């Protein structure tokens, strides 16, 4: 696949829809207007709405990293892997995935449900929102997608073919570099307050920590348990309001086979940021909800995984193995949470939870996050519990 394709604009999106028979059935191109709303690191995102109020989203990958520009080229073929991830989630867990309308490989365009009535979860968290049941929803989502794409839900042949089809080397390389390697090396991407320098040097030169991150990177690269979302942070979700909100996982271009605990750990890392922000801002109710989030998400994951277990395809997979597997997923998740926590403070692609705090609160929150990360990586708790962030 070449990167020789037409980038969509607000003006051309309706014409594009008009040339796609599958999309014309959903929305009237003659009256469609479009607005580019992409605020992520990588892509163009258009919300397209017709005169009757029917709408959909077109997402197109740029041939480079959006926040950097053409100086950081990146294959637009990542949309192929996003299509795989979106289809899998829509099939396995429709309640937590956008409706997927189709993929145009030649133009790197994905068409999906318009979720603009929802808010990016990170933004909602930054504003102090509390959704008491969100951990249950997201834990069950991971269990359903992991079960469906692992050897539990796929025949041996389909499982191996799926690993081959979703080998996503360029995006995985970004994760290998940005999440694991760069924060522990002297890399130009690393940037943090000078007040944190001594602390960061102590942390990143702790041989126990570097050995554990090296191990986790190897696990990420070699243990193909299930199709993971691969970028499972709070900016990759859209959320509604209330105790049991509408919650949809988006932005699946990092999808690939990997350890099931990777997604759980990424999200715990990002809840660590939201928790540190809530503490720094004195938001006690939000902080206690977020402190309980990882354990509640883990419980929901384990319950859903256990509920699905009797449906496993291979009868030779013994019941006893379920608990062995769950224990390994749990311990992986704790480690990956530590890696993500270090990475967003020290390395590239910072998070607004911490960056948007006033300077003194910023320092306090960044130190808290790094202290938690250090413990998760060098003296990990036996289980995911309510004390992870204390
Ligand atoms: C170059 S991409 C930087 C980061 O943005 C994405 O959301 C991923 O988290 C990636 O690591
Ligand atoms: Mg993203």
Mind explaining what this structure looks like?
There is one protein chain. The chain starts with 12 loop residues before the first helix and ends in a 12-residue tail after the last helix. It is α+β, with helices and mostly antiparallel strands and 390 residues long. It contains 14 helices and 12 strands. It has helices spanning 13-18, 21-24, 78-92, 121-126, 134-149, 156-165, 169-181, 197-204, 207-222, 261-280, 284-308, 319-346, 352-355, 359-378; strands at 33-36, 43-49, 55-61, 64-65, 69-73, 100-104, 109-112, 119-120, 226-228, 237-239, 247-249, 256-258. Strands 1-2-3-7-6 form a 5-stranded antiparallel sheet, with helices on one face. Strands 8-10-11 form a 3-stranded antiparallel sheet. The model has no long low-confidence stretch (mean pLDDT 96). α5 packs parallel to α11 (284-308), α7 runs antiparallel to α9 and α12 runs antiparallel to α14. It binds 5-S-methyl-5-thio-alpha-D-ribofuranose and magnesium ion. The site of 5-S-methyl-5-thio-alpha-D-ribofuranose (SR1) has 7 residues, from α7.
Q: What's the layout of helices and strands?
A:
Elements lengths: L12 H6 L2 H4 L8 E4 L6 E7 L5 E7 L2 E2 L3 E5 L4 H15 L7 E5 L4 E4 L6 E2 H6 L7 H16 L6 H10 L3 H13 L15 H8 L2 H16 L3 E3 L8 E3 L7 E3 L6 E3 L2 H20 L3 H25 L10 H28 L5 H4 L3 H20 L12
Antiparallel strand pairs: 1-2, 2-3, 3-7, 4-5, 6-7, 8-10, 9-12, 10-11
Helix pairs in contact: 5-11, 7-9, 10-11, 10-12, 10-14, 12-14
Bound molecules: 5-S-methyl-5-thio-alpha-D-ribofuranose (SR1) and magnesium ion (MG).
């Amino acid at each position: 696949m070449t990167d020789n394709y037409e980038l969509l604009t607000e003006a051309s999106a309706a014409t594009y829809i008009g040339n796609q028979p599958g999309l014309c059935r959903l929305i009237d191109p003659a009256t469609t207007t479009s607005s580019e709303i992409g605020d992520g690191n990588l892509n163009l995102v258009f919300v397209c709405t017709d005169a009757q109020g029917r709408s959909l989203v077109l997402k197109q990958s740029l041939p480079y990293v959006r926040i950097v520009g053409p100086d950081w080229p990146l294959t637009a073929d990542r949309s192929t892997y996003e299509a795989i991830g979106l289809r899998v989630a829509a099939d396995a867990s429709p309640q937590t995935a956008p409706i997927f309308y189709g993929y145009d490989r030649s133009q790197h365009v994905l068409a999906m449900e318009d979720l603009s009535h929802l808010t990016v979860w990170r933004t909602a968290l930054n504003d102090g929102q509390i959704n008491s049941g969100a951990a249950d929803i997201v834990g069950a989502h991971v269990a359903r997608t992991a079960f469906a794409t692992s050897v539990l839900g796929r025949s041996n042949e389909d499982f191996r073919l799926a690993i081959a089809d979703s080998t996503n080397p360029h995006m995985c390389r970004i994760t290998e570099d940005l999440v694991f390697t760069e924060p522990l090396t002297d890399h130009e991407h690393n940037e943090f307050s000078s007040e944190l320098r001594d602390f960061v040097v102590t942390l990143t030169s702790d041989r126990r920590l570097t050995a554990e991150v090296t191990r986790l990177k190897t696990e990420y690269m070699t243990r193909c348990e299930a199709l993971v979302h691969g970028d499972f942070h709070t900016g990759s979700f859209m959320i509604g309001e209330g105790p049991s909100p509408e919650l949809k996982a988006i932005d699946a271009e990092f999808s690939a086979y990997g350890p099931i605990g990777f997604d759980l750990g990424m999200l715990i890392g990002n809840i660590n940021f939201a928790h540190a922000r809530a503490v720094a801002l004195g938001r006690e109710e939000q902080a206690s909800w977020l402190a309980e989030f990882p354990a509640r998400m883990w419980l929901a994951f384990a319950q859903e995984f256990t509920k699905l277990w009797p449906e496993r395809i291979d009868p030779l997979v013994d019941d006893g193995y379920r608990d062995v597997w769950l224990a390994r997923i749990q311990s992986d998740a704790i480690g990956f949470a530590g890696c993500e926590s270090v990475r967003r403070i020290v390395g590239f692609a910072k998070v607004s939870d911490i960056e948007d705090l006033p300077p003194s609160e910023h320092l306090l929150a960044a130190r808290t996050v790094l202290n938690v990360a250090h413990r998760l990586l060098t003296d990990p708790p036996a289980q995911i519990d309510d004390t992870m962030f204390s």
